[in-house]
Amino acid sequence: MEKQPKPQLLLSSQLSLLNRVYEVTLNGVFLSWKEVETRQKRAVGNIYGPLKAAGSHYVPVCEIISVQETEEECPSTDLGKWQKVPQSPVESNQHAFTVSYVERIQKHRWRCSEVTLHCTDRTLCLQWVQAIREQLSLLTIRPKRLLVYINPYGGKHRGKRIYEQKVAPIFSRACISTDVIVTERANHARDHLKTEAELKKYDGVVCVGGDGMFSEIIHGLISRTQCDSGVDQNRSDETLIPCSLRIGIIPAGSTDCICYATVGSNDPVTSALHIVVGDSQPMDVCSIHHNNTFLRYSVSLLGYGFYGDVLTDSERKRWMGPARYDISGVKTFLSHRYYEGTISFLPADENVGTPRDKLQCRSGCNICRLPSLDKQVSKDEESISDTDTKGVWQVIRGKFLAINAACMSCACPRSPKGLSPSAHLADGTADLILVRKCSRFDFLRHLLRHTNKDDQFDHPFVEVYRVHQFRFTPRYEETDSELELREAEGSGRKRFFSQICREHPACNCSLVHSSWNCDGEILPHAAIQVRVHCQLIKLFARGIEEQSVFEEPYALNAI
Ligand SMILES: CCCCCCCCCCCCC/C=C/[C@@H](O)[C@H](COP(=O)(O)O)NC(=O)CCCCCCCCCCCCCCC
Ligand SMILES: Nc1ncnc2c1ncn2[C@@H]1O[C@H](COP(=O)(O)OP(=O)(O)O)[C@@H](O)[C@H]1O
Ligand SMILES: [Ca+2]
């Protein structure tokens, strides 16, 4: 193995911390401090936190949030209380600087930690502050100015409080300036982004809310980007232009699956810190069309049947907050409706992995980093030759309890591994999951597997495909030729029945249509065409970090 050159040493001094002397070093990669003592103690205690090796602490420069000269606390003479006083070079130990940095705690969560190092004189203290600030100024990927939208009614209505108490102090410590808009109605953020916002002023957009609020932000940003570039969103075969602004999500919604699946937790402080350090995670987006009309974009769940019905029912129970999904979930489960229709899809090449492999998308994922050759599908799908096995559309007809498309895992607190645990954030594909009509007991077994380690696809009534595009036509909208085909299969009487059911949706027979749940919004059409657009947007995230990053020190030989 080639030996990496050691990063250049920038500054090294003996400074004190909690009355002990430390050798403190700064190079272009790490800030480190190591106790200067003859008997070196092994670091004990919390295994998370700054990287520790035998009494040494290492903080990567890219995880330093800020550095500032510390105001020492001294007793005030007249009030007898402790007060903050400005630095004065009276006593050597009063010169100190504080470094705030990212500390990893359990379950992929990050915290803002601090270390205060005391110097013998002010010149040295300022030298340290300046040297660290210089290193931070080299991190040009960090945002300086953000546009923040808060949905005050998302989740448990705590968006505003979460932002003010947990997020704003972190942004101000990191010297990030913000323009904050508290939304006054649904689609306020979308419309503002689409037509009014002066996007050039910002390095990113932050949304405080749930998946529905995030959906508003991407609709605003993607539409604006296409409009500015003259791309017609109504054409399903258009190549869309990727958005340049990154999006941050501060979770304050009911499911928060986009945040959870890209960060590994739904914790506002963790998300704020990913924004501060300037992370960037590309993400696929599905476009949904009906004939030649653009309907919506989706990044998480696009679900017909079960999840569509859960959403439709839950909208009437919004006042319940996040619990509405569980109540509507049980109700929908008990109603056990199935829907008939035709799915056609364009499968992805297997070199992007399969939904049933165990290769999960993690930070720095190789599958997402190296785009596969078949990601850019032919514009004219009809021209795809039947002899080309990669480009052949497949058709499946049947009765389904659920048809789900997941552009990413859809991991969330309700289902920590998600609807499709091996789906990738940025590979240009979606996983299409078909749950055929089965007994209530079997469907329950399938649902339960979303909450444990068992494979939810390992059932004879579940099929899963990795796709670039798909189409769905509910049975009642099938063309005459499709119906004739079926009648020839021996179900002639049903055609008559389907027409009756259209007028009597309450009859609960299998021919009534469901709705699509598109990232928590109800779609007005059942017949849709879906296409995955590879890496159309970018998030302030890095994908879920491997557990080892949290539990073991980095390879310290790079230091
Ligand atoms: C028996 C327990 C079964 C638990 C099954 C849990 C599966 C959960 C998969 C969740 C995938 C979530 C995908 C994300 C969707 C979100 O974009 C979207 C919008 O989020 P927002 O409100 O934050 O804006 N959220 C949703 O559409 C919510 C979907 C939640 C579905 C919960 C279903 C609960 C089912 C319970 C069935 C219980 C049967 C019990 C029988 C005795
Ligand atoms: N000020 C507002 N008043 C009412 N609805 C809003 C407002 N701002 C956003 N919304 C809408 O609220 C819905 C739910 O928002 P979201 O933040 O996803 O919360 P939840 O996760 O609880 O569904 C979204 O459809 C969004 O468009
Ligand atoms: Ca994907």
Automatic annotation (TrEMBL):
Coiled coil: none
Gene3D superfamilies given in the database record: 2.60.200.40, Probable inorganic polyphosphate/atp-NAD kinase, domain 1
InterPro entries assigned: ATP-NAD_kinase_N, CERK_C, CERK_PH, Diacylglycerol_kinase_cat_dom, Lipid_Phosphate_FormReg, NAD/diacylglycerol_kinase_sf
Molecular-function annotations in GO: ceramide kinase activity
Domain DAGKc: 141-292
SMART domains: DAGKc
Record-level GO BP terms: ceramide metabolic process
Entry's Gene Ontology cellular component terms: membrane
Tree of life domain: Eukaryota
UniProt-recorded name of the protein: DAGKc domain-containing protein
